[in-house]
From TrEMBL:
Principal location class: cytoplasm
GO biological process assignments: amino sugar biosynthetic process; carbohydrate metabolic process; fructose 6-phosphate metabolic process; protein N-linked glycosylation; UDP-N-acetylglucosamine metabolic process
Residue span, SIS domain: 41-181, 215-360
Keywords, ordered alphabetically: Aminotransferase, Cytoplasm, Glutamine amidotransferase, Repeat, Transferase
Catalysed reaction equations from the record: D-fructose 6-phosphate + L-glutamine = D-glucosamine 6-phosphate + L-glutamate
Transmembrane segments: none
Highest rank taxon of the organism: Bacteria
Span of the entire protein shown here: 232 to 601 of 601
The protein's name: Glutamine--fructose-6-phosphate aminotransferase [isomerizing]
Signal peptide: none
The protein's role, per its UniProt record: Catalyzes the first step in hexosamine metabolism, converting fructose-6P into glucosamine-6P using glutamine as a nitrogen source.
Subcellular localization: Cytoplasm
GO CC annotation terms, alphabetical: cytosol
Length: 370
């Protein structure tokens, strides 16, 4: 059942091209229009919403944070992302014009379920993005958009994360289409890029895994790892850090690279491992330049800099102890690629330490208590 892989996590990392492809399947009709069958919320309601709040926990919340950049850009609707347990116990401003998007792999996370109930009591419409058909959260929501990642067994989420980002993007494009924020041909171009993601993820698995494995093995004794990113690379950095905490029990933190000089740079000491997610230079030149200067800042203070960059980016080489290249894509699609080496890094480091990557200590796959 592990498909010849040493762990479920390894298998699920390799399932990702299929998980992304399956999540896209059947949602585009022949003339390029996006259709979401599970969208049982009236179109007139979706046209009038003035705010989106994403609620989730753990990795699912990072998927939401990635999606915020895309949905705001495409739909011009403000998107807040909030941990479900925080949302529930403050007094959030939620009403009939709020669309709540609840993201959950299992569909059974109690914190998220309680937040869904609270949102609906306030009159909000709730869409569940979920991987488990018929589970509590989609049943209690107004609509469900299923990720088709297949069962995820390893406690730490991998393929569900990529599928959640894809599902959120489909939702964002659907809303943009419905609300007239984007023209059909623009949406088609974005969807075309999305459809190239499975083969690009596959190429990372085929060509990059050994390099990341060797890197992890060399670093199995590190005491802490810092992850830096900007824009969509910021939630990717946090997700990379979470994976390392969960699997390898190593202290890790993900920072917004721009925040470095406001605090975290004090942590940089000789030999500190810093993993930096670099945005495409073709996408937004200024963003790329800013991250390059962040790499220089930590390197000047002795950091060991490992860089995740897109193929063809030669500029980063000069400032990196090691570069891990991922295929080229657009700025907003990049998280679907840059996350993959970080997943492999955490898994291989934990494996090198002799840890159980499928069942990390103290964690449960689905937390059904508040
Ligand atoms: C945690 C799991 O307890 O719950 C994480 O260990 C997961 O992997 C989080 O991201 C949220 O779970 P779900 O099922 O609501 O996506």
């Amino acid at each position: 059942e592990k498909g010849g892989f040493p762990s479920f996590m390894d298998k699920e990392i390799h399932d990702q091209p299929q998980a992304v492809a399956d999540t896209l399947l059947g949602r585009l009709d022949i003339d390029g229009k996006l259709t979401l069958d599970e969208m049982h919320i009236d179109e007139t309601v979706l046209k009038t919403i003035d705010k989106i709040i994403v609620i989730a926990c753990g990795t699912a919340a990072y998927a939401g944070q990635v999606a915020k950049y895309a949905i705001e850009h495409w739909c011009r609707v403000p998107v807040e992302v909030e941990l479900a347990h925080e949302f529930r116990y403050r007094d959030p401003v939620v009403n009939e014009k709020t669309l709540v998007v609840a993201i959950s792999q299992s569909g059974e996370t109690m914190d998220t379920t309680m937040a869904v109930r609270h949102a609906r009591q306030q009159g909000a419409k709730v869409i569940a993005i979920c991987n488990t058909f018929g589970s509590t959260i989609p049943r209690e929501s107004d609509a469900a958009l299923y990720t088709h990642a297949g069962p995820e067994i390893a406690v730490a989420s991998t393929k569900a994360f990529l599928s959640q980002v894809v599902a959120c993007y489909l939702l964002g494009l659907y809303l943009a289409q419905l609300r007239g924020n984007k023209f059909r041909d623009e949406i088609t171009t974005i969807l075309e890029e999305l459809q190239t993601i499975p083969e690009k993820v596959q190429s990372i698995l085929d060509n990059g895994k050994q390099q990341v494995q060797a890197l992890a093995q060399r670093n199995q004794d590190v005491g802490s790892v810092l992850f830096l990113g900007r824009h969509v690379g910021f939630p990717v950095a946090m997700e990379g850090a979470l994976k390392l905490k969960e699997l390898a029990y190593i202290h890790a933190e993900g920072f917004a690279a721009g925040e470095l000089k406001h605090g975290p740079i004090a942590l940089i000491d000789d030999g500190q491992l810093v993993i930096i997610v670099v945005p495409s230079k073709r996408g937004r030149d200024s963003l790329h330049a800013k991250v390059i200067s962040n790499i220089q800042e930590v390197r000047a203070r002795g950091a060991n800099t490992v860089v995740i960059a897109e193929e063809g980016d030669e500029e980063v080489r000069e400032f990196a102890s090691e570069v891990i290249y991922v295929p080229q894509t657009t700025t907003l699609m990049a998280p679907l690629l840059t996350t993959v080496p970080l997943q492999i890094f955490a898994m291989e480091l934990a494996t090198a330490k002799g840890l159980d990557v499928d069942q990390p200590r103290n964690l449960a796959k689905s937390v059904t208590v508040e």
